[in-house]
Design goal:
heterodimer; A: alpha/beta; Aldehyde Dehydrogenase, Chain A, domain 1; seven-stranded mixed β-sheet; 20 strands; B: alpha/beta; TIM Barrel; eight-stranded parallel β-sheet; 12 helices
């Protein structure tokens, strides 16, 4: 049995010197227009908004605010391009998408640095996860372009038309890739709206798309906030809506689409349970907890934000987790050694801090790592709540930050009940040394993705999506094609 | 059985309760340590720390007093051209060479480690192992590096392995005991973890990966599992146990990764030669070369560093 008085020390002795990624090689324009019909054009009302670096609060660029009229132009451009694009020889569509993938790879360093500057995520993640996975998605769906008849044997796969896509700020380029790649492979054209706090890599992607020689109007990118997104979703010329974001907005979209014949996929919130059994490889499970909740500052819809740990090992797990949290480096997102970067926006930080207060009011015990955080910018120390129960708001509601609620369970069925007892059902994790237990648990949890003895693993070949309030439809893999096709007998 | 042995026997840990190890997860964690970027002042500090943690080793059938004396000179004078360098922690030799090393290191703050217990195979009766240990201690060894009986361990005779370590520990008296698990012969990380627990409960002051005679020798994966076992033992008992990866760590970059792993697993208290050693014969020169590079910006050829 571990004794709490036997403490490890991580704050003194040898420290790592700063190792910042250089930003000399990147170019960010002072001002960005809207990417419509193959060109960057000024917004019709001449309005712009700022995008800032959340780690320093420094201004990065001015971004065009697309009005309803601009969105209409974008949809018309997409409609105009659709005729030729959908009739293009499928292998040629594939060729264009492969080109996009290759250019992203070639410019990976630039994309990684900009993603970290604009969104606050550590360069280690944008470099090792976001950008390579974005390229992988384009590569994967490029391969499908001329094989759609094999994907759905016995049925004819036809494109839908114009896809209106609205994406979140947590994985800006990756979400753009998730949306654009399958849409194009299936012969659709696109109007994409990036999140207002992280528009830069989508605009850089517009440059890539132009460089790849895609016909004008096949991909259009309109920047703006909620109103612009609403204009994209509700535009009568849009045949298919794809949205990733909060459950709250997802509901609004679903209402708006009711009664229309638009096809849609919604990828919404989550409150995933990461379940640790006593017979798990505990040290590796602790890594899985860290990866599950602190990856991308916890701004992950499938984050393992609830820990369910078997009571007999709970103390040990919490002690190890607390020590592990002390070794997490919080700070400059561009430093190669940073594990946890900046919270994406002031608004999100406010929301997280409100939940920290709620958790404590509800009687949970809060523990944060002892690290210092910079004065400027938006920061939240890695946080865990113990002594929480199923009825607490920090257990039920999505916080979308580096905040973990830790509950204990005694039996297998109790774990399963608690795991399912939430309005969400996006992901889950199971940690045990017993194969049979893995299968039994993964069959019983209603969630779109369940990881066993690992967490937050993504691959373009694997479908992703939610049950219940976590959304509908699947993205990625073969299933991801279905969302962009009309299948006829 | 002596009274002490009886006392020991009652402390055989329940190995069925030892934490399980997931190899895929271990690989991932190790990869994370390797992405740490160590530059500038923190790199120089790390390189100097590594030098001070080296057990400079010669364990060959062809070892002679001459060879051992030269090794001891290297231990004292790593590279006098660069002022302010530390000396290594220890030299590691066979028991018959302990006397020679003692003489060569007289008045120096460098410890003498001797392998014992029928190194490297451990295939000898306990009486022979004890005799060898006593000889090494009486010749003046400060530290004994023993091997466990891997055959007994693999056959499930944990009691025998446990008692053997306990008995050798007694024969060491106050001399530090390092217990070599020879992880390359244990086969799985689960067994490495169990053997670590067994050795620590039996009284090991240090646990050590390998003899250097079997491949694979030290790997970061194996070392991580042993460090985690040390941490859990510390959580339980409050007693610190040292760690020595040995064999296969021949360049500075890899050694820095080990330090990163040590720092993020056990913390600052273990970041000294008292609690962490590198068993290596050729690591020192690569570290020296890197220090030189950090100071001047230029790599010097191997010919500028003494090879003893």
């Amino acid at each position: 049995m571990a004794r709490p008085e036997n403490k490890l020390a991580f704050d003194d002795g040898w420290q790592y010197a700063p190792a910042p990624e250089s930003t000399d090689h990147i170019r960010i324009d002072k001002k960005y227009g809207l990417f419509i019909g193959g060109d960057f054009v000024a917004p019709d009302k001449g309005k712009y908004f700022d995008t800032i670096n959340p780690a320093t609060e420094q201004h990065l660029s001015r971004i065009a605010l697309a009005s309803e009229g601009d969105v209409d132009k974008a949809v018309k451009a997409a409609r105009k391009a659709y005729r030729a694009w959908s009739r293009l020889k499928p292998a040629n569509r594939g060729k264009y998408i492969y080109r996009i993938a290759r250019i992203i790879q070639e410019r990976a360093r630039e994309f990684a640095a900009i993603e970290s500057l604009d969104g606050g995520k550590p360069i280690r993640e944008s470099r090792d996860v976001d950008i390579p996975l974005s390229a992988a998605h384009f590569f994967y769906y490029a391969g499908w372009a001329d094989k759609l008849e094999y994907a759905f044997p016995g049925r004819r796969a036809k494109s839908l038309g114009v896809a209106g896509q609205v994406i979140p700020w947590n994985f800006p380029l990756l979400m753009a890739a998730w949306k654009i790649a399958p849409a194009l492979a299936c012969g659709n054209t696109v109007v994409l709206k990036p999140a207002e706090t992280t528009p830069l890599t989508a605009l850089k992607l517009a440059e890539v798309i132009a460089d790849a020689g895609l016909p004008p109007g096949v991909v259009n990118i309109v920047t703006g906030a909620g109103e612009t997104g609403a204009a994209v979703v509700t535009h009568p010329g849009v045949d298919k809506v794809a949205f990733t974001g909060s459950t709250e907005i997802g509901r609004v979209i679903q209402k708006a689409l009711a009664g229309t014949d638009k096809k849609y996929t919604l990828e919404l919130g989550g409150k995933a349970a990461n379940i640790i059994f006593a017979d798990a490889a505990i040290d590796q499970a602790v890594e899985g907890i860290v990866n599950g909740i602190f990856f991308n500052q916890g701004h992950v819809c499938c984050a393992g934000s609830r820990l369910l740990v078997q009571e007999s090992v709970a103390e040990e797990v919490v002690q190890k987790l607390r020590d592990r949290m002390e070794t997490l480096i919080v700070g400059d997102p561009l430093d190669k050694n940073t594990d946890i970067g900046a919270i994406n926006s002031a608004q999100q930080l406010e929301k997280i801090e409100a939940y920290l207060a709620i958790g404590q009011e509800e009687g949970a015990r809060m523990h944060q790592s002892s690290c210092a955080v910079p004065d400027k910018g938006y920061w939240c120390r890695p946080t865990i709540f113990t002594d929480v129960s199923q009825s607490n708001r920090v257990v039920q509601e999505e916080i979308f930050g580096p905040v973990l609620a830790i509950q204990t369970f005694r039996t297998f069925s109790e774990a399963m009940t608690k795991a399912n007892n939430t309005p969400y059902g996006l992901s889950g994790g199971v940690w045990t040394d017993k194969g049979a237990k893995i299968f039994k648990m993964t069959r019983g949890i209603r969630a779109g993705v369940i990881w066993a003895n690992t967490f937050n693993k993504f691959d373009p070949t694997s479908p992703f999506g939610g049950y219940k309030e976590s959304g509908m439809g699947r993205e990625g893999g073969l299933h991801g094609l279905d969302a962009y096709l009309k299948l006829e007998a | 059985m002596s009274l002490a042995a009886v006392k020991n026997a009652s402390r055989l840990p329940d190995l069925s309760r030892v934490a399980r190890v997931d190899e895929v997860g271990v690989d991932e964690r190790v990869a994370r340590f390797q992405t740490r970027s160590i530059k500038k002042a923190s790199k120089i500090e790390a390189l100097k720390l590594i030098l001070s943690m080296i057990d400079l080793t010669t364990l060959e059938g062809q070892d002679t007093p001459g060879k051992v004396r030269q090794l001891c000179q290297k231990a004292i004078h790593l590279h006098d051209e660069i002022p302010g360098l530390p000396h290594v922690a220890a030299v590691c030799v066979y028991p018959t060479m302990v006397g020679v090393a003692r003489e060569a290191l007289k008045g120096r703050d460098i410890r003498i480690a001797s392998v014992a217990t029928a190194f490297p195979s451990g295939m000898a009766p306990l009486s022979v192992k004890l005799e060898e240990t006593r000889l090494a201690v009486s010749e003046g060894a400060d530290e004994i590096d023993m091997v466990i009986s891997r055959g007994a361990f693999l056959a499930g005779d944990y009691r025998k392995v446990f008692d053997e370590i306990g008995t050798i520990k007694q024969a060491c008296g106050g001399v530090h005991l390092k217990v070599i698990l020879e992880t390359g012969e244990l086969g799985t990380l689960d067994r490495v973890r169990r053997a670590s627990v067994l050795a620590m409960h039996a009284g090991a002051d240090f646990i050590k990966t390998s003899t250097g005679k079997i491949q694979p020798a030290a790997t970061m994966q194996v070392t991580l599992v042993m460090l985690q076992a040390i941490r859990d033992y510390f959580y339980e008992t409050g007693r610190m146990v040292g760690m020595k990866p040995a064999g296969g760590i021949s360049n500075a970059k890899l050694a820095v990764h080990y330090l990163v792993m040590l720092r993020e697993t056990l913390g600052s208290a273990w970041m000294t030669p008292e609690w962490f050693r590198f068993g290596a014969s050729s690591l020192a020169n690569d570290v020296l070369m890197q220090i030189r590079k950090q100071m001047t910006g230029i790599y010097q050829s191997a010919d500028y560093f003494s090879m003893d």
